[in-house]
Input
Amino acid sequence: MGDLYEHLIYKFAEASNEEAGEHYTPRDAIRLMVDLLFAEESEALLEPGAIRTIYDPTAGTGGMLSVAEERLLERNRQARLRLYGQEINDLSYAICKSDMIGKGQDVGNIKLGDTLADDKFFDKTFDFCMSNPPYGVDWKASKDAVEEEQKKGGPNGRFAPGLPPISDGQMLFLTHPGLRRSRVTPGSWRTASSAVLSERDRHGFQDHGVLYAP
Output
């Protein structure tokens, strides 16, 4: 269902002369991301009964989560990948949950809401995290909640490194933590928010298996 929906989105974007990447992530790109993400644990993931968790804070219709599970099962049919995600769009969220039902996943692990303003998984950590955060959009709608969280979070909060300009929503997602991350982010973010990135690194928020696409 998710594949069909994303194909329709792609065709619509193509017909309207928009960038398809604004709406979904191509499957080839996701497979590359997953392979890089799993590379660190290639041997451990082949062990019988291996169990891992993966999280997508901008889950969409669940395409990244689905491909990650497929790639792991191609290597090890006895492995188990537990999928978690949060999505702000109610239609994409509903499709994602439907796909999770078909895969036998726990649909309670897919949450609806704004990840920046209301992190539904604030008390959890994950083995892997991958995301294609929205780019070219601002975070004005989340501003009050984000600034309040930054004040309360202190030096260990997810926004401790600082906040980028309101226009730079994709940069704000870079501070959203996960034990391991793999992201597609336009190359232009460096010029707008290098100071925030420097602060993020100074606070020890490191990315493992990161993919930055121009």
User: Anything to note?
Assistant: The chain is about 40% helix and 10% strand.
